[in-house]
Design a protein that fits this description.
InterPro entries: NAD(P)-bd_dom_sf, SDR_fam. The chain is of the alpha/beta class and 324 residues long. Helices cover 39% and strands 10% of the residues. An eight-stranded mixed beta sheet has the order 3-2-1-4-5-6-7-8, with helices on both faces. The protein is globular and about 55 Å long.
Length: 324
Amino acid sequence: MPKPEPLQISRFRSTDVPDQTGKTILITGANNGLGLQAATVLAGAGAAIVLACRNQNTGKAALAQVRAAAPNAEHHLVRIDLSDLASVRAAAAEALAAVPRIDVLINNAGLMAIPFAKTVDGFEMQIGTNHLGHFVLTDELLPALLAAPAARVVSLASIAHWPAKIKLDDLNFERRRYTKMGAYQQSKLANLLFSGELARRSEAAGTSITSIAAHPGVAATNLFDSMVPPIPGAVTMTHLGLRVVGSSEKEGALSQLYAATMPDANNDDYLGPTQLRGMRGPVRRSPRSKLARDRKLAADFWAKSVELTGATYGLLEPKSKSKR
């Protein structure tokens, strides 16, 4: 694997985010964690934010925080449940009615290492929420993305994708043994396969959409809370430990902020920390596993996602088959 080219800013900070005035950015899971950190920074840089959240109570609080950061922009709160494809499509319709174009879509929301459960549509919960929900959302929002002069789709992946395997004939763990981390790892590999295939399909169709994946390293967010035993003080201690080996929420959001805004973030980039096997450090172009780079697997997985969800991506039909 060739050594990745360095980024324009070697020690990127939120204060390095370029002016975003006039841009509209939709972020899933913007009511807490990395999503809220990114939403607040981007609003402060001048962007209008569409917060797509399942929990409307914390969503309203997040909307108030974003409005406080940028009172002159028009921000919106949209309800979305990524584990329910009908809700995803309804949320997309609501967003399209509210904003004429979307300059950046950040597919940020996700679940990590939860007990086995199924989505409304019968998918294993982690692949259903972390990948299939975002797969449908991105397809539904293509009209608004294509209306932007140079739209970006940022997909949140994870260093957890490295040991992942993906079974196209058993994505939902109907025949193999379910493990919390195994399902999470599969969903994060899915995010990288999706991001790479979207980059290639966008290029083949001659669109200006840029698809970029990002990972936060190990950030002290509530994503880990499902793995903490129900002992008083355990969550607080876990977050302190995560900051020691990894980073804070603010630092964890930097990779998606770079992917969403910086001019040298390229189609099919994968951005995130690279120190301590990707757990911490400044934003860099990051390596990905052999499976995450497998173009045939990505194309087959895309076809499987279409089959499962009915999302067609008809607006990304290639101009010439010779480009594929």
